[in-house]
Amino acid sequence: xxxxxxxxxxxxxxxxxxxxxxxxxxxxxxxxxxxxxxxxxxxxxxxxxxxxxxxxxxxxxxxxxxxxxxxxxxxxxxxxxxxxxxxxxxxxxxxxxxxxxxxxxxxxxxxxxxxxxxxxxxxxxxxxxxxxxxxxxxxxxxxxxxxxxxxxxxxxxxxxxxxxxxxxxxxxxxxxxxxxxxxxxxxxxxxxxxxxxxxxxxxxxxxxxxxxxxxxxxxxxxxxxxxxxxxxxxxxxxxxxxxxxxxxxxxxxxxxxxxxxxxxxxxxxxxxxxxxxxxxxxxxxxxxxxxxxxxxxxxxxxxxxxxxxxxxxxxxxxxxxxxxxxxxxxxxxxxxxxxxxxxxxxxxxxxxxxxxxxxxxxxxxxxxxxxxxxxxxxxxxxxxxxxxxxxxxxxxxxxxxxxxxxxxxxxxxxxx
Length: 416
What we know:
By secondary structure, the protein is α/β, with parallel strands linked by helices.
């Protein structure tokens, strides 16, 4: 078998991979589709997949302006958890976490979901009160959560600085053991392949330049590859939702900000969990390749650039070194930035709009990756049924008129 595998690799290499089967097709766009999904990231691909799988919709197109996984899906720090404070948020993320737990089997593609646990550190008495409140709220909603002591933290994470004389001494933490990380590009590829297998047309290098309307009803989109007609259009373009909304003559209550992250040189295994801190505003995990994956909060200014300020990098590094002084000797390998769109209450918009047949899924801020399967599952229901599922009903645009906001600002220590 090894000789055969080596021969196969050599044969494919000699043919410049011409005979390799593509993971998904690259079709020419049809003139009309039953549903168009604008945005080929994780959320958009998941929406198309669940539309086909759960609702039997077959004539679907996913339009991606660049390449699959080239946007925010490939520009994040891969954390998955559901320990939010408000019931509306926690139940939506818990649905997503349950889908994560069976996602590799469902897609027949290893998304490398690793339930290694997530610690949210507390550094003050108020931090600990907030942690106890959030843990209690999680348990009331059937979500696993627990409060852990400094001794328990030190035993689980030997390298962490638990000195009482530290600038931000650790007093305890919350722990969600079912939380963890996943491989971001594998998520995009897995959903793309699975959606394609169910007949979804995935059309890359197809930028949407306009949203066509006939009065109060959507009729299709203008793209760099021609006009494509549809009576249902779901827009899932993280960071650029306001741009697409303007094409449809709408204005959304969101702002777009750069969000930075970076990785270190590879190390031997030293950290087998995720550590987050709101006080020093940094979080860290170690990837399967061995590099430390580090991130923090958004840059304060608004914009669509995928580069952030050096001040944020400097602040984040100082924060991580406060928690792990040993890492001061580790060299950084590379950094990147994504664009996140944020609503006033730090919660997403998932639902219908005032334009018949036009649906938006946006405003996830820094929490989008972990919601990928749950977001796609509920958005698919909304598009197929033309009404929201009970899990995403609270996240409609109307809440900004009624005042029924869901305030998650800082509720889970760091909003990642």
